Amino acid sequence: MNDSIFFINALPPNDRRSDLDYVSTLDFSIQKSCDLGFKHTLITIGDKRYDPWVLAQYGLSKNVSFKPLIATNPIHQHPVALAKRLISLKSIFSTEVALNLVSGSFVSELKSIGNNLNFEQRNERLIEFLKIIQDLGSTSSTYSFNGKYYQIENVDLYPRTLTSAKNSIFISGHFEAQLPQYVNEAIYFVKNYRPLDQLQKAFSSKSGLNVGICARSTDAEAMSAVHDLYPMDRQGEMLFTLAVNNNETPWNIWIKDYLKKNRDDDPLFYLKPFKNYQSSAPFIVGSYEKVAEHLKKCTELNYNFFILDYHRSDHDHIKVLMQMLKPS
Fold it and tell me: Of 52, 55, 92, 140, which has the fewest CB atoms closer than 10 Å, so is most exposed?
């Protein structure tokens, strides 16, 4: 297994169906992310109640070891505004801040803010967005850019050394073919986990998977646990159906087709929490050994990091799994 394998935690979104105190949930998850040694903690943009940049600042204020991976969509900010946010966080907290660039969004959200670009056009804009962020971090003078989607003239940011220093950029989706010049640079590619027989070998060794995990001492214990932790939820099923029908990304198109032809209870591609809108990814369910072995098979396909989705009560089980997968 590749010695460079690493794990990323995902900060739980605010579940508006729950009466739990979300701030307490945040505090607990932030502390566990630091205790377990995750390389980053992903903060998604799926929660309409909380801005991911505010959550990142909150996490950094609670624990100096917290390393946010902030989901960023060009529909929400200009690249120069984002660069200023990066400079601000790094100046105040003196820590690494990573970005997870995404271009997908709900069709209803795009219409509500007057964004009429189709999926391919939004991907083109994301590439320009990425180029500007990287250029701003390397320029030693004022910066100008004349592209299809962005026009910038003589922008000057201070201090320039903080714009991209110690910063990693993750990009979600199928962008390797469109970004050949970035494959060997500090760009990480994120895809959603699929069954091994449908998971293509990654183009870049800096590729990873978004995957759910429920592991226990035995397969039977793991399956019992996932049933208890993620009970059937009719409201969640309705939200899931609305979500996948309100999004035009290749992943949503693929998963809708998969569900028409396949069962949702395969332990190595377990979809019930995902279909109940209780998780952001398909699950691998089984014994520690079986789950670890399956993740090792993913590394053989060039996927060398994992964004883990798991129940907030499962930190101890995730710790066991992570220890098993550490390079010897």
Answer: 140
CB 303 within 8 A of CB 208: yes
Structural domains in the chain?
A: 6-211+302-325 (3.20.20.30)
Q: Report residue 166 as tokens.
A: 């110690």
Answer yes or no: are the C-beta atoms of 204 and 189 closer than 8 Å: yes
In whole angstroms, give the CA distance from residue 94 to residue 101: 22
Residue whose token pair is 């220890």: 323
Output the CA torsion sign for 217, 223, 225, 229: positive
Place of tokens 């949930």: 25
d(CA 237, CA 280): 13
Nearest-CA neighbor of 253 among 107, 88, 42, 115? Answer: 107
What whole-number distance in Å separates Cα of residue 116 and Cα of residue 119? 10
**Which pTM does this prediction carry?**
0.89
Cβ neighbours, 10 Å, residue 234: 8
